[in-house]
Structure formats: structure tokens, C-alpha cells
Amino acid sequence: xxxxxDLDRPGDLAAALxxxxxxxxxxxxxxxNLIVDMRAGRERPQRVVSLDKLGVxxxxxxxxxxxxxxxxxxxxxxxxxxxxxxxxxxxVESARQFAGQMVRNTATxxxxxxxxxxxxxxxxxxxxxxxxxxxxxxxxRRTVPIESFFIGYKKDIRRPGELISRISxxxxxxxxxxLFYKLARRKGDAITVVGVAVALxxxxxxxxxxxxxxxxxxxxxxxxxxxxxxxxxxxxxxELIESAAEAAxxxxxxxxxxxxxxAYRRHxxxxxxxxxxxxxxxxxx
Amino acid sequence: xxxxxxxxxxxxxxxxxxxxxxxxxxxxxGKATGRTPYAGDYVMPGMLHAKxxxxxxxxxxxxxxxxxxxxxxxxxxxxxxxRDLPDRLAPTDIPGQTGQTRxxxxxxxxxxxxxxxxxxxxxxxxxESVDVAEKAMSLIDYDLEPWPxxxxxESAMRPGAPVVQGTDNIxxxxxxxxxxxxxxxxxxxxVVERTYRTQFIEHAFLEPEVGLAWVDENDVVNIRVxxxxxxxxxxxxxxxxxxxNKVRIMGALVGGGFGGKEDITVEIYLALLAKHTGxxxxxxxxxxxxxxGHGKRHPFILTYKTGVKRNGKITALDVRLVSDAGAYVFxxxxxxxxxxxxAPGPYLIENLKVDAVSVATNNxxxxxxxxxxxxxxxxxxxxxxxxxAQAIGxxxxxxxxRNYLKTGEPTATGYRVPSAVWTERCAxxxxxxxxxxxxxxxxxxxGRGLAAYQQSYGRLTFLHDTSEAWVGVEVDGxxxxxxxxxxxxxxxxxxxxxxxxxxxGVNMENxxxxxxxxxxxxxxxxxxxxxxxxxxxxxxxxxxxxxxxRLVARAAKAFGVPVDDxxxxxxxxxxLDRPDKAMSFADLVRLCATxxxxxxxxxxFRAPFTDRLDPATGxxxxxxxxxxxxHAIEVAVDTETGEVTVLKSVACHDVGQCINPAAVEGQIEGxxxxxxxxALSEEMIYREGRLMTPSLSEYLIPTAMDVPxxxxxxxxxxxxxxxxxxxxxxxxxxxxxxxxIANAVADAIGRRIHDLPITPEKVVxxxxxxx
Lengths: 285, 771
Description:
The complex is a heterodimer.
Chain A: E1 6-8, H1 13-20, E2 25-28, H2 34-39, E3 47-50, E4 60-63, E5 66-70, H3 75-80, H4 82-87, H5 89-96, H6 101-106, H7 109-114, H8 123-128, E6 132-137, E7 140-145, E8 150-152, E9 155-156, E10 163-170, E11 176-184, E12 192-203, E13 206-215, E14 222-223, H9 225-231, H10 238-251, H11 262-284
Parallel strand pairs in A: 1-3, 2-3
Antiparallel strand pairs in A: 4-5, 5-10, 6-7, 6-10, 8-9, 11-12, 12-13, 13-14
Helix pairs in contact in A: 9-10, 10-11
Chain B: H1 28-33, E1 48-54, E2 60-66, H2 68-72, E3 76-80, E4 89-90, E5 107-108, E6 114-115, E7 121-127, H3 130-138, E8 141-146, H4 153-157, E9 170-178, H5 181-186, E10 190-197, E11 210-215, E12 221-225, H6 233-240, E13 247-250, H7 267-277, E14 281-284, H8 287-293, E15 300-308, E16 314-326, H9 332-342, E17 352-360, H10 374-392, H11 396-403, H12 423-432, E18 444-457, E19 466-473, E20 479-483, H13 492-504, E21 511-515, H14 532-559, E22 566-569, E23 572-575, E24 578-584, H15 585-594, E25 600-606, E26 625-638, E27 644-654, H16 661-680, E28 686-687, E29 690-691, E30 710-715, H17 737-749, H18 760-768
Parallel strand pairs in B: 1-14, 12-13, 16-17, 20-21, 27-30
Antiparallel strand pairs in B: 1-7, 2-6, 2-8, 3-7, 4-5, 9-17, 10-15, 11-12, 11-14, 15-16, 18-26, 19-20, 19-25, 22-23, 23-24, 26-27, 28-29
């Protein structure tokens, strides 16, 4: 059962941040990781700070070409938003395949990022969007690229008491295409074996910008920069796409676990990067 | 013995008013509105909460067990260890009703010295709250010394392998020999030999094990529990050392069984704790407890060697079966026997040899699971049929057509099935119902597969199975059915209502069923082995017919007509062609009541009682009857990622006679989903005996996103030995699904994966040879 803990439900952000400075306090958003970990005895917080009353942290806005969402925006919120549908189709695809309906209704975007799992489904599409995270604490706020947020397996740059308050990205141009593929052992409610997000911007028959973000094949989600470099500035051919896929597979550092072997994960990266880049290019060319 | 099936016998002039209709089940309104209490909903004032401390090691010696700190904790009422139960063992055999000798398989209740599997119980705790019980669990000190274990059945059979228990690791053997196997192979144009493997799987019922026990004013230990078998009361009484009439089991509607609640789960722990504390005790397994707290489906290694002529006629079949019994015997010998009998499938094999062995290991013990050995056999025999068809270059369905067992022909044990054998009809219909083939595209390949089967319903006939039901009518014309049958979600109780009202001519709203109480409802046996409808349904029919006989006789006298002219329907009594003669059903019952005519009947139905099979040849009668049918599948396989998507899932079964077609469809759809999990995603992984898939996030049952709309085609030969010609469908619905999927995947990719589950990784390895 649950350990004994104090529960706070602050009504404004400043109060929440003040409590989060105290030792042993953890933030509770959707709870789909924290509650499970507490039940299993893996987490034993002394103080749980529920963010459920902080409406300010939930919402989706688009202004001046910039999309901003609150950290407590749920996965279901993403699926219901025309703004997200238009500006982040790969994120929508990952949200659609995220866990099951009940979890999607409560799990939050910031929670999925902050849990630090390399298999977190929303993260590769956010990498492909060059998303930026706003971190707030009682001491102030800072904004960082999502790519620099993760520093190791379930390790990130947050300081004690710091929350992810916002996630933002530049709305992509009409000459861009982003795709996501979740490779898993079943279609619903599954933990990802390989997650791949790609984004291409094409101008005058050339790939201007390429993003290849990989999940569940390294200690953190990461960008396969070698693969991106092979594609950027080029008119894509099957050979180029194949070498980008090979470069992505070579950059993966997967592990063996009960879901899949490292060899299979590497194979999956290769096959899916090739497939998604090919599809994106075909759509834009 | 039943007479052989006469196809003209039952089909004419059958007019049923209630049986065969999708009536609202008696259990439906309560479930739909949330008013139905399950076993876990029952509480009592002053009750204690129990926990079971389990071994984290699969093979070890218990060197030290110190519960003093746990006993001293405030709020702890009792901590029991094996030292507190020096002379007690727990039976693990099939619960019998007719005094058969119990197999010598009793096991320790709590670890005395040797730990034989991961999760074996070390101590029981009863405390004022679950939190205190958990705290007490953490205060128990113990030392386990690793002990050499053995973790696969092939190693366990080798000389010098660590012995799990007793003198060797052989738990059971069965042999079947029929015809001349050497001559059969000599007559073959080709011999095809393949080995197939199946995995440990988990029942994953919605409702984990739970119960509440208390000792009443008569010193009877009462246990309200989620179980398929209330008649474990005898074994529970033996285990705690009280007479059989001092244990009463009350069931509740069960949130899924599938064989996983066929053995004793929480009952003995509850009985011991309630008896020692004198207080009510509740024990609820978490999902994680449940995963280590009941037996799994046996993994089998199945080697098939088939001799076949160029024209497709099978001339010989040599089968070797090895099953992993895990650390304790439980139902392994019976599961193995089912596998051996089912080994040739629904085919007439004149020259047959089956050698089957079940072997102990330090893996989780294995026991009953929907399909009970026959399902594992089907995984092999139906894949083997496709392999043989491919080897000789004939159509897969044609090969089957040339070999199907037909009505009146002998099975593997030489028994002539009394009912219709409609395998070919079912297979052809299911196959055609797949419709137009989905086009392949890019990396996606489309494949189709079919599996036919033969599956027994009803227990092994040498177990001398019986079942009782009581039917009575009240003076207002309402009907009561009483029977011990447990309802595990398939409508077992509701079926009795439909049968009783069919016989008595009243409507569904006028009947109530009381069931699942070992002390006050007549004993009906187990809800296992696809036997509840066959056995208890027949008992209810016989009881209702006896009541009907007396009522009709009285009505005939009142009307002055022959008894055959009395009609009972729609709560009314009338006479054929005599519109002036009529009364309400209630008036007739009142008339009988005033005259002291008995308005109730307790009936026993007996399955055929036979001797055991010939030990050398395996010949004889093993079952009363079999169900036949087929499942057809279309899959899409992504040849790059290895993902398999089931596009179409079509079942066609001859159920003899539907009692409630909506319930039959429910069974078929559930079987299709469970079989899909067996084929593609489900596996309890044990590494050196340790469970690596301890929760539903690692153990992957298919979700609504994975299972397509299942098409159920129900045929009714009205030839079964159940009530109104019914056969059983509980287990049969599952049996052919996994091999049909395996055949579809092989058809799609041109390679066969011989071991379940067919994971994306195995598909990729078969196609691309990654490593």
C-alpha cells in the first residue's frame, strides 16, 4: 500500500513552488508514474504537492508562429486540439498511441518528459519539433532546448523544486512533414520498443532541415545527428535515405530486455528511419 | 453408452420457446447496474486482513525464519509458519465426488525446509489492517540458501539432474498405441517431422483471487471466495484437520476463471487464519500476488512425425509430448492425458503412437488452463497439417478433408463419438467467411490460416462425474432452481434458468437461481472441463421434467385429456385442440399444493462411468463426447518490423444446441481474444525459475486495439449429450485460435516460427537473421 505522506493542493503556482523547495516534496501531476511507483514502494515521498488546482499550467495557445502548451496539459488535450493537429502531427500520432484511454485522460505532457523514460512517447516528436522547455522554481525561470534537458537514464537538468511549466515550439512551415512510429509488442497500452520521430523541411527540391529522434534505444531519447547531416541540403534518393537509416541504427545504443533484444531494436531503428524518411520525402517532393 | 448419432433423429419437429434464444441473462441486470457483489465486496465487522509472505528464490533451503518482530508489532493478530502446522498438507488433486483414490500429490502448505518455486509461501499474517500486515511482512527475517534447481523439462529428465521432489522428476507418463506404426510409415510416400513449442501463460482474469472466512456458532469454517470449485471444501477440511461437514464454501459471481481458479488459491490460508484467531479474515491478492499465486498453462514440447501418401492420406503419426509440470504436481497428469488423447486432432489416424511425459522443474507449477493440454496439442497438430500439406504440395484444406474423422469413426483411444462430427462443414464455412483477401502493400504481407480441432467437454469418464440440481415451483407459479454450480461469467446459472423454464412453460422473469453454496445448494461439481452446462444442465432438465410430469398429470386429470395433450407455455396450462380447457400455471401449482403433490425435485445426472484407459495402449473411452469446429484467420505481417496484425478472425463451431446464443458468442469472442494473446504476445517468462513478467505491463494480453471484430458462426447439430442436444463451447472457443494465427503468419511470410508466442522479434529473425 501507500506510504504515509502529506498532501498539498496549492491554489497558485507561487505557493506550489514554495512547498516544492522543502525536502522530500515531489510534484504530482497526472500521477500515472508516481502513484504506480509509490504503490510498488519504489518512491516514498514525504510530501506530495498536487498541481491539480493550477489551471494556469494547462492549455494550448498559438501566437505569432509560436505554439505554447502548459506542462499539465494532458495527452487527451493534445488529441482534441486543432492547434496541435495542425502544428505537430507527429505529436498527435504519438499521443494517439500513448498508453490507454484512461491514462491519456490524466497523464500530462510535462510528466511524460519529466519521468525521464527513454521510452516516453511524446518526447521524440518534441525533439523533432526543436521544442523548448520552460523550467520554473521559487528562484526564477529559465528556458532550455528539450535536447539539453536529459543528461542520462532518468536524469535531467532540473534543480530541486523545479517544474516544467511550459513546452513551446515554432509552428512548422507548410513545406514540412513530421511522422512518428511506435514499435511495440501490441497495439494498445504498450511500452515502446522503438520510437522514431522524423521531420523534414523541403525547399526547392532539397531537404533544408532534417530531424531524426529516437526513443527507447539509448539511455535517453536523442537525435541521430549523423543521419540528419546525411539528409540536410540534399535531394533525397533511396541510397541517401538508406545511409541515413544506417547512421541512425549505428548511433543507437539499445539494451536487451524482456521486451526485445538490442539487435532487434537496432534493426527496428534502421527499418523505421528508412520508412519514415521515405514517406515524408514522398509527401513533400 | 449413448447410441451413435443419427442425423435424422433430432432435427425434426423441434420447437423451443426459450432455449436457443438470446434472452437477458439472470446475472445481467445486477452486473450492468453494479449491484452484483463479487467475493471481494464482502466484509464483516472486526475482520482481519491477511498477507502471504513468499519466497523470492525458486530453489533454496530455508535456513532461518524469525517471525518474532512481526508477531510483536501492534495490530498483528497472528503469524503462522510451517512450524505451527507440523502435521498438515494441502491436497492438489482434482476434487472428486465419488470417492476416487486421491493421487499422492499433497504438498506443504508453507515452506518447511525446501523452497521449490519462486513465490512459494513462507508465512501467513493476519492483522488489523492491510498496512499493518504489510509492515509485519517486512519485519519477518529469513535466510534462504540457494539450492541447485532445474529449470527446463529436458534437462530435468537427464541423469544427475537436481531432483525437485521424491526420487526423480517424472511426474506422469501416458502412451497411446493404435494400429501398426511401422507399417504405417512404410506405406508413406513422405515423412514430415517437426517440433513445436508452447509457452507458460497466465489466465489474467479480471478479478484476482479474494476471499473472506469466519468460524460460525456451529464451529463451521465458512469461506466466501472467488472460485470455480466450491467442492474444494473436502480438501480444505483435510488440510486444516476438521471433518468435511465443518467447512462451507460460498461462491459469488466470479470475475473470470479460465482454469486459474480451479485449484485451491486463498482458501486454506483463510481457513487456518480464521480458525486460529477466531475472527473473520479477508485475503485479497494484488495482481502481482495473483501472478505468483496460482498455476500457469503448461509449456509443451511437441514433436510430430507424420507419414503421408502423395494423395494426402496420412498413414502414420508418431507424437512425443513433454510438458513442464513446474514444482508441484497439481493437475499435470490429467493435462498431459488430455494432450495425449487430443494429439492426432480431429483426424482419423489408423496407425498412431503417442508418448507423453510430464516433468517436474523449479519453475512455477502448472495446472488447469482453458483447453487443458488439448489446446497445446492443437497448436502442434494444426501447424503440422499445414507443414505436411506444403511438403507434399497439396492444398491445406484438401489435406484436412482427406483425413477428417467422420461421424461414427473411432478417436485416438478407439472410442466412437456418439454425436455428429461436423469438422469439415465448420472448417469450410469459416474459411469461406474470410471473404476477399486484403491486398498486400509495401512491406506488408497478407496471410491466412485455419485450424480445426476436437475438444472434449465433460470430465474424464473414469472420474465418475455426477451433478445435482433442484427445481421447485412456488404456489404463485414462480420457479426456483438450486444448484451448487459456480458461475464464472459464462452464464452457467442463467442457462439453468432457461432450461427449467423451457420445461415448465413459464417465462424468464418468473425464475430465480440460487447457486454456489456447498452447504445449502445441491452439489453440482466443478465449473471446469466445459462440463457445467453438460452436467448441471442435464440435472436441471431432469429435475424440471420430473416436476413437469406431476403437474401435467394433475392438469390432465382436471381437463380430462391424455397427459400428452397438456401444454405448458407462457405461464399457462392448456389442452391441445380444447380451447375450453385452460388455467394459469399458478392455479395448477396451487391445486397440486392443496393435494400434497410434490412440487420439487432433486435430480442427479451421471456422466458415463468407465474404467481407466488401457495403460499400455491408451485404448478405451476417456470422455462422453467432443465438440468440433474451426477458426480462420487473416493477418497482415509487417516484414520490416515483424509486427503481426490480425485483420479477420472467424469462428465456426457446432455447439449442438445453443441455450443462449448471446452467451455462446461471448464465449467465442473471448476465446478469440485469449487465443490471439496465446499466439502473439502472452508469455510468462521465467529465467532460472524467476518470474520476469510480474505485472500486466510486462505480461501482454491483447487489448481492444489489437483484436478485430470476431465473426461467430454457430451451427447446431442438436446431437450433443448435453441438455437439448447441447455440446460445450467454453474451452473449444479458444483451442483452434492460436494455431490458426500461426498458420496465417507462416502463410504470409513463407517461414514458420515453431515456438509461441510469435513476437515481432521472432518474425524479424526468421526473415532477416539479425543478431
